[in-house]
Write a structure and sequence with these properties.
Helix 4 links the parallel strand 6 and strand 7. The longest helix is centred in the C-terminal third of the chain and has 17 residues. The chain has twelve helices and ten strands. It is about 45% helix and about 15% strand. Strands 9-8-7-6-5-4-1-10 form an eight-stranded parallel sheet. Strands 2-3 form a two-stranded antiparallel ribbon. It starts with a strand and ends in a 5-residue tail after the last helix. By secondary structure, the chain is of the alpha/beta class. It has a single domain, classed as Alpha-Beta Barrel (TIM Barrel). Helix 1 packs across helix 2, helix 6 packs parallel to helix 7 and helix 11 crosses helix 12.
Length: about 290
């Protein structure tokens, strides 16, 4: 089971190609910052715009760079079960510690279809699987009762990244699934609420920029320092919101460029952060001090 802080890595680009030099520096910063793991090729990593060859090579490079220092969870979801299986098997082959499986998007499967999809992927590999429920992007919600049924059928689905934004639904998952899976928040701005209802951490966008500060919320909470965790959470909350001034990963890419870690280059159909929002983001960073290296 996965607990703690996992960074949903940005994929740095330079002149249209993945910038592995910048990626290595970002990963080294993550390890030094105390993260429990990194997640390449998720939504934040712009996985919909990379080729299968780029996807496989990026995951392989991340495993190589990390060198077992922290966990590597590869985003290998797809709206085609066959493609999700292939990506997951390739990720297992290069040595990841687990895979992140997003709800199949656009084709809007039924609950039975979602169960069949995830079961097929999980049964095709021997490594752990993290479910990723984000109905706002996929157009379909994986319901708590369906999640409970799915994990009763499989042995290697061990966690869920919950990004529905629905605390009542998250509580129902905890109620139905208990300690059979761990819940990780899929929204930085719900980290503390999710911890308080029985969650175990976060797959974070903001931790690309400031892993130490995000990890501190979890550490303080786990130490029983509720006041300290709350104070730290509200300190980073403005920047959590700042990461969604526009569609993720547009703002975090801009923030990483401002802080000097990589270019803010994106792949179409995503465009650069607007000048107005870049100014707003820079102000938030300056107020926190995150732009200072």
């Amino acid at each position: 089971m996965f607990k703690g802080l996992y960074t949903a890595l940005v994929t740095p680009f330079s002149n249209g190609k993945i910038d592995y030099s910048a990626l290595e520096k970002i990963i080294e910063m993550q390890i030094q910052g105390g993260v429990d793991g990194v997640v390449p090729m998720g939504t934040t990593g712009e996985s919909p715009t990379v080729s299968f060859d780029e996807h496989r090579e990026c995951v392989r490079r991340v495993v190589e760079i990390v060198n077992s220092s922290v966990k590597v969870i590869a985003g290998t979801g797809a709206n085609s079960t066959k493609e999700a299986v292939w990506l997951s098997q390739e990720a297992e082959r290069v040595g990841v510690d687990g895979v992140l499986q997003v709800n199949p998007y656009y084709n809007k499967p039924t609950q039975k279809g979602l169960i069949a999809h995830f079961e097929a992927v999980a049964s095709s590999i021997s490594i752990p699987v993290i479910l990723y429920n984000i109905p706002g992007r996929t157009g379909v919600n994986f319901e708590p009762e369906s999640i409970s049924e799915l994990i009763s059928r499989t042995d290697n689905i061990v966690s869920i990244k919950e990004a529905s934004g629905n605390i009542n639904q998250m509580m129902r998952i905890v109620e139905l699934c208990g300690d059979r899976i761990t819940m990780l928040s899929g929204d930085d701005n719900l980290l503390l609420p999710v911890l308080s209802i029985g969650g175990h951490g976060v797959i974070s966008v903001l931790s690309n920029l400031m892993p130490v500060e995000v990890k501190k919320v979890i550490t303080l909470f786990n130490q029983g320092d509720a006041d300290g965790a709350r104070e730290q959470f509200y300190r980073i909350l403005p920047l959590c919101r700042g990461m969604f001034l526009e569609t993720n990963p547009i703002p975090i890419k801009a923030a990483m460029e401002i802080a000097g870690y990589c270019s803010s280059e994106l792949r179409l159909p995503l465009l650069q952060l607007s000048d107005e929002n870049r100014s707003r983001l820079k102000k938030l960073m300056d107020e926190y001090g995150a732009a200072l290296k």
